[in-house]
Amino acid sequence: KDVSSKAIRRRFLEYFIEEKGHNFVRSSPVVPFCDPTVSFVNAGMNQFKGIFLGKQVPQFAKVANSQKCIRVGGKHNDLNVVGSDGYHQTFFEMLGNWSFGDYSKNTACLYAWDLLTNVFKLPPSRLYVTYFEGDNKLGIPEDTETKEIWRMIGVQEDRILPFGAKDNFWEMGLTGPCGTCTEIHIDNRETRNRSEFVNKGLHDLIEVWNIVFIGYNRQTDGSIAALPNTYVDTGMGFERLTSVLQGKISNYDTDNFSYILNRIHKSCNNIPEYSGKFGETDWDSLDTNYRILADHARMISVCLSDGIIPEQNQKLRRVLRKSFLLSENVFLRERGLLKELCKDILENLGDAYPEMHKNENQVNQILDYEEEVYRNIREKAIKDWKVISANNPKLESLEILESPSLVAAYKDITLINPKEIDSKLAFKLYDTHGLDEESIEKLSVALNLPFNAKQLEYKLQEAKTRSKEGSLLKFDNLLPLLSNFSKTNDDFKYNYVKNGDTYIFPD
Ligand code: ATP
Ligand code: MG
Ligand code: MG
Ligand code: MG
């Protein structure tokens, strides 16, 4: 039996498209065109937002695909845990099936259970399902219907578990489509009942599939409004499914990652192999850094081949610079490592996402350019820092050599010589140097200047709301920018509503 990741992806699509009559819709690019409520596409349902909101008529009543997703920034930000566990990446593929008025809860649960237990042959004794237990604040009652569905399907009573809004009320972002959900979790190790450990962050008992019943819209004022229809929206973590089916306890031990980890090892002299270890205190350990670099290289490959330009995207640029930094400091490769990794990744993922094959040249050009920019900034930062720290030993704690942007920010601050880092200054550091809260905190401690992180958060929120208007990008103005990239974006225009000459997702 073929359990390669490619075969698993294919089997999922075959099941829904050939056996259950769904239409295939390509993965959208990870760029959330015209939708300022998310920084990257974070779930398969993003491209169908207009349909859920009742603003668009669906082309097909049931569709399925595998969608490129990125969870950096916003409500579903996973950047900070990447590397420390084996099942959260910044980039992952979400396998999904949708029903826009065709089937409902019952069939959605049946399909998922059938696929996992009969097609992929996972024993029910290793599966758990969860359902929404109700929430007073949301004003939504317990989802007893779904509980009953799972019982009818034959799931053991003590493996059907209720959870609250945090786990079983899914939302796309701070606003937008949302709804109650039911999830399937897999115990990767034990067969005895471990119900009490579901949703507790165990690395060997993980969530794989989320079946959402989108029936509400979270509005800008924070309130929830019922939508005219409740549609089925499901998403299964492809890398998690692969690791379960390949009998591994971490996504990094599967063929979605092993070729990247091997390449890092082969390309770097005298660096020990990836050994797959996790530990509570191993943030700086080699294995963790292997995972971070492999993850980041995948995210970068996807972003660049989808036409995101680092110059215009701080989040992507930070991930890029972190990767250059790891290549140099940990893997002792001054140049070119990231490019080698991306080459392999484009090759590997290109089968499923042809745009990745097509845009290889552009990806390489941007990588060369960004690496050059990074090297220049870094050289300058090192020189500057030597001068700065020579007469201030306290600043050593900043480990400034690690971050050129910290040096630049430091120089800005000392020019003004302020009494505190107030929210205005903090915002400026964020905006011009891309410093996050943590880096600003570090600076404030080293310089002995008070800093209130809460105020910065408030300021950022404010700025986001303000820029919302401005960021309703004109789709047609964007196209020339992307003209070197494949025109995949044209295919997705139908997901947007035309408003004058602007394509938007209406709120
Ligand atoms: P978790 O609780 O593990 O963070 P989630 O509830 O945030 O997952 P969903 O928003 O429900 O995830 O997304 C649907 C599926 O996508 C999940 O069941 C999981 O299999 C997968 N998934 C979510 N986040 C990631 C990630 N960062 N890396 C890999 N797979 C992910
Ligand atoms: Mg999550
Ligand atoms: Mg979850
Ligand atoms: Mg979930």
From TrEMBL:
<keyword id="KW-0694">RNA-binding</keyword>
<keyword id="KW-0648">Protein biosynthesis</keyword>
<dbReference type="GO" id="GO:0008270">
    <property type="term" value="F:zinc ion binding"/>
</dbReference>
<keyword id="KW-0820">tRNA-binding</keyword>
<keyword id="KW-0862">Zinc</keyword>
<dbReference type="GO" id="GO:0002161">
    <property type="term" value="F:aminoacyl-tRNA deacylase activity"/>
</dbReference>
<dbReference type="GO" id="GO:0005739">
    <property type="term" value="C:mitochondrion"/>
</dbReference>
<keyword id="KW-0030">Aminoacyl-tRNA synthetase</keyword>
<comment type="function">
    <text>Catalyzes the attachment of alanine to tRNA(Ala) in a two-step reaction: alanine is first activated by ATP to form Ala-AMP and then transferred to the acceptor end of tRNA(Ala). Also edits incorrectly charged tRNA(Ala) via its editing domain.</text>
</comment>
<dbReference type="GO" id="GO:0005524">
    <property type="term" value="F:ATP binding"/>
</dbReference>
<keyword id="KW-0547">Nucleotide-binding</keyword>
<dbReference type="GO" id="GO:0004813">
    <property type="term" value="F:alanine-tRNA ligase activity"/>
</dbReference>
<keyword id="KW-0479">Metal-binding</keyword>
<comment type="subunit">
    <text>Monomer.</text>
</comment>
<dbReference type="GO" id="GO:0000049">
    <property type="term" value="F:tRNA binding"/>
</dbReference>
<dbReference type="GO" id="GO:0006419">
    <property type="term" value="P:alanyl-tRNA aminoacylation"/>
</dbReference>
<keyword id="KW-0067">ATP-binding</keyword>
<keyword id="KW-0436">Ligase</keyword>
<comment type="similarity">
    <text>Belongs to the class-II aminoacyl-tRNA synthetase family. Alax-L subfamily.</text>
</comment>
<protein>
    <recommendedName>
        <fullName>Alanine--tRNA ligase</fullName>
        <ecNumber>6.1.1.7</ecNumber>
    </recommendedName>
</protein>
